[in-house]
Amino acid sequence: MPAPTLSQRALSLQESAIRKLDLTVALHPNVRWYRVNIGQPDVPTPRPLLDAVHNWDVNVVAYGPASGLPAVREAAARYHSRWSPGLEARHVAVTQGGSEALLFAFTALCDPGDEVLVPEPYYTNYNGFASVVGARVRPIATRLEDGFALPTDEVLDQHLTDKTRAIVFSNPGNPTGAVYGPETLARVLAWAERHGIFVIADEVYRRIWFDEAPTSALEFEQYRDQVICIDSLSKTYSACGSRIGFLISRNEQLMEKIERLGQARLGAQPLAQQMALSALALPESYYEEVRGIYRRRVDALMNALSELPGVKAPRPTGAFYAMLDLPVDDSEAFARWMVESFRHEGESVVVAPGPGFYASNDKGRTQVRVAAVLREADLRRAVELLGLGLEAYPGRLR
Ligand SMILES: Cc1ncc(COP(=O)(O)O)c(C=O)c1O
Q1: Could you read off the pLDDT of 100-134 as tens digits, one per residue?
Q2: What 8-state DSSP symbol labels residue 344?
Q3: Domain locations in the chain?
Q4: Residue 46 half-sphere exposure, CB side, CA atoms within 13 Å?
Q5: Residues with beta carbon inside 6 Å of ligand 1?
Q6: Class of domain 47-281
Q7: Which residue out of 229, 235, 238, 373 has the highest number of ligand 1 atoms within 8 Å of its CB and is therefore the one to mutate?
Q8: Which of 180, 183, 202 is closest to 191 using CA atoms?
Q9: According to the CATH classification, is domain 8-44+285-392 in 2.40.320.10?
């Protein structure tokens, strides 16, 4: 009897770089792990979000509308109107995390064989969303030495084909920590309009920046048909498990199709949408507090890293990740060696290997990503462990 076979799409799905080492970590529950490999902050979720869950009082846990509860859509539109005036509830769809918003965007824009441009290194899961819809990520190199600046128009032109449907980037950047301002956004949007392609601006870290606020793609109302913005409760409110995100666009035809995609999965969870209502009602001072927390953490992380010989660590200007260049020639082997073999006083550190943030495995081989998701003292200890590990590593280069 022939064995049942899976689709090529399923077979081509990459294993997440971030999750790769988790299996080994799980085998050693007696080690104290400093997990700076994932974007799961230990910051307490604000009380009003938890109260919203406790106070939810219904007789029937019913389905909600496909594009989200009207009150949540209105609240999200009002919130984004603080810097992108004129947004209305109909421009917002509530999704199951920013992840589903991205998946919906890729689904709505791409047919099999289409291409999506992505400045590299990039958030690994873009590969997954592209694979699911049969599209291909076409990476465009950016460099650690230039602070991962977005490529020039000439470089973008070189990567454009008749299959290109969109350019997607996160601003602030995961894993780069780069923040794109008004000139960069204006340039890329104008370029996208000239070529009739969409811009998917993944702004899930928008509230976390250290020098200048990132510019939202939604601020450019003239590109109403081009722009799709992705937002989420996960990082801003330390509510990763709420699984609530937003897809926001003024493109009416697109929003109609997003509503249909939403209908196919019958709506995002109404209980978690209560958290969204509380989150979106928080005062501006809340966001200043969050920025302060991550600024102190990133400072602690960078100060500690500056003490490590042979490690290059550009300071992130947003989000809470830093891409490091290490004196090793295979950061995957090094990260694995750390979790399998390196212990200091019963403790060790988990970092995310660089190649997972590139389209091909031969790039980012000297890099790792670390996330400032722990308290300052824990981050300092994590960097100390990284330094001790590098000293002890048999494959160290210099
Ligand atoms: C750049 C970026 N976009 C989207 C997401 C997905 O977030 P969510 O938890 O809202 O699905 C993440 C999560 O780490 C991310 O880093």
Answers
A1: 999 999 999 999 999 999 999 999 999 999 999 99
A2: B
A3: 8-44+285-392, 47-281
A4: 22
A5: 39, 97-99, 123, 170, 174, 202, 204, 232, 234, 240, 245
A6: alpha beta
A7: 235
A8: 183
A9: no
